[in-house]
Design goal:
By secondary structure, the chain is of the alpha/beta class. 41% of the residues lie in helices and 15% in strands. Strands 4-3-2-1-5-6-7 form a seven-stranded mixed beta sheet, with helices on both faces. GO terms for molecular function: phosphatase activity.
Amino acid sequence: MGVQATANLPAMKTNPKFIFFTDFDGTITLQDSNDYMTDNIGYGREKRVQGNQDTLSGKINFRDSFREMMESVSKPYSECIQYLVDNIKLDPHFKEFFQWALENNVPVVVLSSGMEPIIKALLKSLVGPDAEKMEVLGNYVKARPGKSIDEEGGWEIEFRHPESGFGHDKSVALRQYSSLPEDVRPTMFYAGDGVSDLSAARETDLLFAKKGHDLITYCAKESVPFTVFGDWSSILEKCKEIVEGKTTVQDAAHEGFEAYKAGKAGIEPIFS
């Protein structure tokens, strides 16, 4: 039963006891590539920030807000990719974490609301050849009718789950793993920072939420357990402790919520 259940899940090929799922933009990278494009070559930061706030408050769903962001960027797709490769930086501790993960059979799966071609190009540039060992699940890009993606105004986002208000409902992939038989199901980690991670927040064993970002506000409001991270050095430290049996995911989540209540999460606590 276990073999059949994992046959179509690439991250289960090595029978790992732990899998690390992660958002890409603003989590692995220091900047969100989609925000960066929108702020600098799209409709600008003010409108983009308002869209994020409207998504958090439920006035608009993430899919529609994100589509509006991407429609404001008209440069040819190849120019967008090069623009991001030239400007987006990697969290300085991610490579160390990824090397540890490779050495300890902890597959890393990127679940992103961004577009796969951009993510793969950035990972190749920032991480190097080993980036191919990361599974990437994101949205797609397609040419507008009668145009090429490499001409002005020629491309648009194509959502992985167009029927979902998330565009890419990350919970779909996560549930494929969380529903595995108990004897093969791995412990699941997830790291994220913002509104694109709301669909993933409840679906993992330990959620790492980035200090000072919107995901913490959501988790606190909805009573979703989480722990806080500032960069990937703290994620690496906590994962090592859990993998080595020095702490549990439950203890880590408790510590994270206590840090939030004490005002150490970079977000003003909603309650004490």
